[in-house]
Amino acid sequence: MKRPIRFDDSLPRLVASLRAIYPGDLATADPIVIRDFEGRLGVILNIPAADLDRLNSAVAESLGPYARPEDPVRNRDAAGVSRIVEEAQTAPVLKIGGVNLRLLDRRIVGADWMARPVLKPGAIPRIAFVSIKGGVGRSTALSIAATHLAQAGLRVLTVDLDLEAPGLGATLLKPEELPTYGVVDWLVVNRLSGTDSTFRADCIGKSSLLDGISVVPAFGSQTLAHPADALAKIARASLEDMRDGTPLPLRDQLKEMLGNFEGTGDYDVVLIDGRAGLHETTAAPVLGLGAKVLLFGINEPQTFQGYAFLLAHIRDRIPGGTDWEENAFFVQAKADPDPGDAEIAQERFNALWSMEEGPLAQPEKLGPDDLDLVWADSDTPTPLPQDPVPVLRILNDERFRSFNPVENRVQLDERLVRSTFGELLDWLDEKMDLGK
């Protein structure tokens, strides 16, 4: 029985069918592949018109439902193609089946994951805290970072982009300090009626923890007073905005929002709490805001598998992806103080960072020390690369498990914080040039 084609097979099979039928050198045909919203493929080639019929028949038969319904193969001089050819000049070049091609990946959702990364922030430095999974202490670390920088005399703006599981508002603000609106309100209101300086001020809460900490929560007091409207706002928050007939994606809306806050001149640094996982709203803090990106994870299989997906996509599917790596830093959260744990985690983060394109190994049985990557089956430690990837370690500390500094100021004791978050604080001092 013939094996049915699947999504992962479609692109290699397209190339194989073209190579089998096309009599010339496929590389000189300069293939541009378009994958539509549903996953169907079409290709534009610079070839003689006489070859089109045979190629169309072969591709349609080979790909079946994964072929563009009408004329999956088109020539460079076909109607409407010139615009696509121009767009493809900035698309990533992939090597599939020994052939270099450019891929235009059309998406209804996830389009922000395809745009070239922004490498420089706005008017002031931005630091994004993101993770593959929740519960790794990401928001706690951001709150500690905010208090540390404020203690050093910086004016800190914290912004909660975890729109579905927000936490910064409750962590850094007393209930009476919560502003009227938040990020979700900004996105919805700005799209419909626009925002002004009054609305901006109504999105910012001043924390009484320390002078210099301001918070833009995901939701403000208005939503807490009308909780039935929260899901209706969330459903609309990540939609594209339309400006003079041109769509404005979420990442550009968030960049515009941050620029609006930064333009007041009231802040020295912006700390951004991103959503856990690989959702569309995570693309902006990871790629779209010019932030230094702290990638949080626990030394466990889910961390490394998730980041393997993320890094492979950034390196292989978006233009300028490798340039982004200068902005990325791993954080091992809830780390064991045992030096052996640090060595093992460093080895695994190194392997993740240096992983080449290809399938992830599947261990026969997943144990506490197994990861969905290839490890040497030996008791002898694998030598580290000459330049190991930087990994900041935050120790597992039960004293921060129920983090609520508004009610428990002891959790901000300098010696306590330093003993657990010391490597992160040193990194912040270096990046913000605090000279400590």
What is the typical, i.e. mean, pLDDT? 87
Percent of residues in helices: 25-40%
Q: What is the terminal-to-terminal distance?
A: 68 Å
> What fraction of the residues are assigned to beta strands by DSSP?
15-25%
The secondary-structure element order is: HEEHEHEEEHEHHHEEHHEEHEHEHHEHEH
Individual helix count: 15
Overall spatial form = globular
Strand order of the largest sheet: 8-9-7-12-6-13-14-15
Rg over CA atoms: 25 Å
* Structural class by helix and strand composition: alpha/beta
Query: Biggest sheet: strands, sense, closure?
Result: 8 strands, mixed
Q: pLDDT below 50 for ≥5 consecutive residues: which ranges?
A: 361-385
Number of strand elements = 15
Strand and helix layout:
Blueprint: H1 7-21, E1 32-35, E2 41-45, H2 52-63, E3 73-75, H3 81-88, E4 93-96, E5 99-105, E6 126-131, H4 138-151, E7 156-160, H5 168-172, H6 183-192, H7 197-201, E8 205-206, E9 213-216, H8 221-225, H9 230-237, E10 241-243, E11 246-248, H10 250-262, E12 269-273, H11 280-288, E13 292-297, H12 301-317, H13 321-324, E14 328-335, H14 339-353, E15 391-395, H15 414-431
Parallel strand pairs: 1-5, 2-3, 6-12, 6-13, 7-9, 7-12, 13-14, 14-15
Antiparallel strand pairs: 1-2, 4-5, 8-9, 10-11
Helix pairs in contact: 1-2, 4-15, 6-9, 10-11, 12-14
